[in-house]
Amino acid sequence: MESSPKDLNHVGIVGLGLIGGSLGLDLQSLGCRVYGLTHRESTAQRAKERGLAQVASTDPNILLNCSVVILALPLSQLVKPSKELINILPANAIITDVGSVKAPITKVWNKIHPLFVPSHPMAGTSNAGIEAGERNLFKNRPWVTTPSKETNQTALSTIHELAHLLGSQLVSVDAEMHDQAVALISHLPIFISAALLKTVGEGQPPSLLELAKTVASSGFADTTRIGAGNPNLGVDLAKYNHEALVQALSSYCLSIRELKSLIENNQWDQLQSTLKESKLSRSDFLE
Amino acid sequence: MESSPKDLNHVGIVGLGLIGGSLGLDLQSLGCRVYGLTHRESTAQRAKERGLAQVASTDPNILLNCSVVILALPLSQLVKPSKELINILPANAIITDVGSVKAPITKVWNKIHPLFVPSHPMAGTSNAGIEAGERNLFKNRPWVTTPSKETNQTALSTIHELAHLLGSQLVSVDAEMHDQAVALISHLPIFISAALLKTVGEGQPPSLLELAKTVASSGFADTTRIGAGNPNLGVDLAKYNHEALVQALSSYCLSIRELKSLIENNQWDQLQSTLKESKLSRSDFLE
User: Fold this and answer.
1) Could you say which of A141, A266, B137, B185 has the lowest number of CB atoms within 10 Å?
2) What element of type H or E holds A38?
3) What does pTM read for this prediction?
């Protein structure tokens, strides 16, 4: 066991799902003592069995001696935190979160706690819940912080150190920029993909639908994967990254209408250029 | 080596790319003697080295004794076949193709050859060209034939036997139905995905684009994969499956506008139902 940096000796994690549970596993191997707060007794029990935290409990008092508390909760609970959650956080602890939309969380939490640092560790699998946490989830993945002028610099350094120790690639940008980028790259694809599922699932004659099912292949599977995720998460992203997502959807509607128009009007040379540019754009993005 | 059925003793394949080359490999292991016709001398040479056919040549005369000839050519060369191609086909051989749009090919080839059977083996990888052919590509994949009233029944049986021997799941439907199904399930996703790449690649501020590149993850990779395929294939599909694709794009534009409107108008309950239905629809499709 390595010796953990002073500020990270006692780390609290609120919520032990995929992100919280994975953090618990990794932080323990870094030598931190991890205190996991769960909503239900049964989850605390299972967290102990899985070794997600040295201490796992539904009792908020376990957080009292923590120098850092990570809020690994669903987006809605971060944007609209309960009084109960606010009251259990030690006044002198550094607080960070893992929410995937940053502007509304930053705005709310800057008023709640002077040592709040907005974070978005960008890692995940398709699993969720108490069984989902796994080691090394954050390794080589972006960990975005979105400090504002209210953010305490020492607290920010501690969270940057935490991200660094977990093997993440640290990115620090303003919250609006973060939200626009994830709207384009993470949230827009969910709705594009869901709209494809809606198109094939609705209003098609049954015989056509049967044939379509028989011939659906990897291209269809890939393009629809992200559209079939957790509906609650989809709604929360739409709700809390509203402006950036609506703007991304507007740009997308223009793009798809432009492609449709090229096809309708038999503009094959222009269609080919567009498809060539798309191909280049992807290799540029995922190089 | 198994003994091949009589009609499949001598099989010609025109074009030894992914589909033609894979057919060559599998048919040889079934005991067929395979004659591969290529456009270029260098490709014929490489086909011999890779063992894609016992005989590989640019000389059309190699097809003279074939009882079955498979046209494994790009869509455009199937819809608008050259005089040269038409002239090299033996009058008494059964002819089939591998084109991914069936109505226009069936229409054209029914007039060219009395023993033409329209086929679409629905298998593929992201590879193309003489190096792409691989064994067992068609195993457990759909092989669609689209016989019309002009289709010779004996010829059709032979092609069904061929598909069966290759381990494919045989599906027989009319050409228009096939084209509508693949428009929805295979061709529409290409343009949906390309439109996403167009949206992120165009008109975004450079700093946002840089951040988006840093945080792009597996969801973005999955949703854009099929949009970054061969631009020529995309154009050919749009050209030759025009009506069905335009109709699929129109339905899709309605779906995405509907989702956008739910989001713009904060209709969260309806958005959640829609996302739930999409999730169900996908498991129904890919069960």
Assistant:
1) A266
2) none
3) 0.92
The pLDDT tens digits of the residues spanning B143-196 come to 999 999 999 999 999 999 999 999 999 999 999 999 999 999 999 999 999 999
Token representation of residue B116: 């033409």
Which secondary structure element, helix H or strand E, spans residue A116, and what is its range? strand A116-117
Interface check for B3 against chain A (CB to CB < 8 A): the answer is no
What is the number of other CB atoms lying within 10 angstroms of the CB of residue A68?
Answer: 25
Residues across chain B? 287
Would you say B181 and A205 are in contact if contact means Cβ atoms under 8 Å apart?
no
Distance separating alpha carbons of residues B71 and B92, to the nearest angstrom: 15
d(CA A110, nearest CA chain B) in Å: 24
Of B252, B261, B263, B266, whose CA–CA distance to B187 is shortest?
B252
- Whose CA is closest to B113, among B132, B135, B97, B130? B97
A44-84 pLDDT, tens digit per residue, is 999 999 999 999 999 999 999 999 999 999 999 999 999 99
Whole-complex ipTM: 0.92
Check CB contact under 8 Å for B242 and A259: no
Q: Which residues contact B66 (CB under 8 A, 6 or more apart)?
A: B10, B11, B12, B35, B90, B93
- Whole-number Å distance between alpha carbons of A35 and A32: 10
Backbone angles phi and psi of A27, in degrees to 5: -65, -35
- Which residues 192-221 in chain A show a CB within 8 A of chain B? 192-204, 207-208, 211-217, 219-221
Query: Rounded to whole angstroms, how far apart are CA atoms A224 and A181?
Result: 21
Q: Which residues does chain A have within 8 Å of residue B232's beta carbon, measured at their own beta carbons?
A: 272
Beta bridge partners of B170: B143
Residue B125 DSSP symbol? -
Q: Give which of B175, B193, B199 is closest to B118, Cα–Cα.
A: B175
Q: For B198-207, what is each residue's pLDDT tens digit? A: 999 888 899 9
Domains of chain B, earliest start first? 6-173 (3.40.50.720), 177-285 (1.10.3660.10)
B90: Cα separation from own chain's centroid: 25
Tokens of A182: 């994830």
Whether A208 sits inside 8 A of B182 (CB atoms) is: no
For residues B110 and B150, the answer to whether their CB atoms sit within 8 Å is: yes
Closest CA to A147 of A124, A127, A118: A118
Instruction: Please tell me the distance from the alpha carbon of residue B259 to that of residue A32, in angstroms, as a whole number.
Output: 45
- Which helix (H) or strand (E) segment holds residue B238: the answer is helix B231-240
Alpha carbon of B60: minimum distance to chain A alpha carbons (Å): 32
Separation of alpha carbons A226 and B63, rounded Å: 48
